[in-house]
Amino acid sequence: MTRALVKATRLTAPMELRYPSDQGVYAPNSITWRLSRERVMLIGGPRALLLQVAHPLVAAGVADFSSFRSDPLLRLRRTLDSTLALVFGDRATSRQAAARINAAHAQVHGSLPEPAGRYPAGTPYDATDPELLLWVHATLVDTTFAVYTRFVGSLQPDELEHAYEESKAAALKLRIPPDAIPSNIDAFGCYMDEMLASDRLAGASFQRAIARDVLYPPVRWVPRRLHWPTVAVTTALLPPRIRELFGLEITASSRRLTDWLQTVVRGILPVVPRALRDMPQARRAYRATAERSGAADGEELDPS
Question: Which pLDDT belongs to residue 68?
Fold first, then answer.
């Protein structure tokens, strides 16, 4: 999602959110719950990771401290669990999730192993650096918008604005300084465009090695060729500059697969039961909210 997706519509007033007692960062009728509940959003995981490691200092931290290369599924599950706990958890759960993420970041610091973009070898990195925190957060926001609008449904300009405004709450929980966060959806689009065009992003050899592990995770007994559908769809979803950095190309077959998947997913989602369509964390959150509110079931607080 760059400025092409951002058609500015200024809001006259923020959306009123319903916060039951003990609610966490987001309310049940928030756009963040609506977007994050969809299981199909998992399609965007590899895209977000490749965007993140296109920043050499983020990639160095992943290479030095993450378990991704040795156990990619465990790393992805832990990341997903923490993110969904922050989004759907009650006050205590979301606070604990943010604390875990922040504590993990505090341990990640070192130096760049080789020159990459504007950064010479030996450049120090620290995962608590606001620039790096903002980039990682921005990749998740951008990927959420890109995947949802392609595979689930359109978002009106005011919905995009609301969703972006809501994303700031998570950014603050993860200790991104308020003055570092783009002020609105237009500013966010400009930030993404500027980052994608800048020499802050690069494709050094160690970054390409991480990218290969993202696209072809070293999962035992899984032949490399079976990863092709994920590689094809991820490549199609990436901005052109990121494809260039990692030496990825959209082929005719990958484009056909992605277009076919988009058509199929958008066609069947409306008839898929929510119990299958939603992330388990979202189902539990809606159920808990309904119980706290005294509703007979979750439908009143479960907008489809």
Answer: 67
- CA torsion, points 214, 215, 220, 224, in degrees to nearest 10? -160
Dist CA 158 CA 160 (whole Å): 5
Kindly list the distances between the CA atom of residue 224 and the CA atoms of 82, 212, 261, in Å, as whole numbers in the listed order.
29, 11, 21
Give the tokens for residue 200: 């802050």
Enter the pTM of the model.
0.88
Can you tell me whether residue 218 is helix, strand or coil? coil
Q: What token pair was written down for 39?
A: 């299981």
Provide the β-strand partners of residue 14.
none
Calpha distance 152→294 (Å, rounded): 31
Residue with tokens 């759907």: 88
Contact in structure between 191 and 176 (CB atoms under 8 Å): no
Residue position matching structure tokens 């509940």:
37
Greater confidence (4 vs 108) lies with 108
Taking phi first (over 0 means left), then psi (-120 to 50 degrees means alpha), and beta for anything else, what does residue 175 get? left
Residues in the chain: 304
